Amino acid sequence: MRPGEVLGEAWGLYKAHWRHLLPVAFVVYLLLSLFVLLLAALLGWLGVIAGVFVSLAGVFWLQGTLVVAVEDVRDGRADLSIRETLSRVRPRMNTLGVAGILAAIGITLGLLLLIVPGLVLATWWLLIVPVIVLESRSVFESFGRSRELVRGNGWNVFGLIVLTFLILIAVGIVVGLLLALVLSPLPEWLEQYVQNVVSNTIFAPFVALAFTLAYFKLRGEREHVSVPPAA
């Protein structure tokens, strides 16, 4: 697996299917963000704490939904509606949420311990979401399965992570400046909220594409499974 090749395919699919992927990301992220705001409004500081955990789980829920969407468009067309996409991932939401919280805690602790352990865990666990969604693995099985698929390709996977987020940072700066200009008449809190929703809607599908394509490639290499290339 070569990071540049994966990112090239991800960009090709993004350009071809953004009309399908962006609405999926928008619906999921909007619902999550509104729920987090509602928790804070109704429960005060307890709601804020609960919102942190919901947000952590929500990252994995969003990526899980997009994994389904990515698998759907790999043949060159989108067959599932947004409702059907959400229905496909719904049975795995609890597993995704728990795995997301555990992974976030583990990686954060690793980063606090001289940084390197956190980066190693982030690399090993990169494929947790596609493993849960596409292989129906349990929480703890998904960690081991992801590590198994990454084994022998650690540097390539780490390179993919670094390149993906460098791209997101560069593009994010430009998008952030444009949104700040457009949204400047709004109150500051509303401007920040809209920026977050728009940014996540734009960027999350690309991340899901890159990491899901990496899953297919690594699985094909390790298990000698014939995985058709993205159309």
From the alpha carbons, calculate the radius of gyration and give it in angstroms: 18 Å
Q: Considering DSSP H and I runs of 4 or more, what fraction of the residues is helical?
A: over 70%
Q: State the major sheet.
A: none
Total tally of structural domains: 1
State the shape.
Answer: globular
Total helical segments: 9
**Low-confidence runs of at least 5 consecutive residues:** none
E-strand count:
0
Query: Into which percentage range does the β-strand content fall?
Result: under 5%
Spell out the helices and strands N to C: HHHHHHHHH
Mean pLDDT over all positions: 84
CA-CA gap between termini: 18 Å
Query: Helix/strand-derived class?
Result: mainly alpha
Outline the structure in words.
There is one protein chain. With 231 residues, this protein is an all-alpha fold. The protein has one domain. It has nine helices and no strands. Helix 1 packs antiparallel against helix 2 and helix 1 packs across helix 9. The protein starts with a helix and ends in an 8-residue tail after the last helix. The model has no long low-confidence stretch (mean pLDDT 84).
Short description:
The chain has 231 residues and is mainly α. It has helices at 3-43, 45-73, 82-89, 93-112, 116-124, 128-135, 139-150, 154-183, 188-223.
Features:
globular, mainly alpha, single chain, about 230 residues
Could you give the topology of this structure?
Blueprint: H1 3-43, H2 45-73, H3 82-89, H4 93-112, H5 116-124, H6 128-135, H7 139-150, H8 154-183, H9 188-223
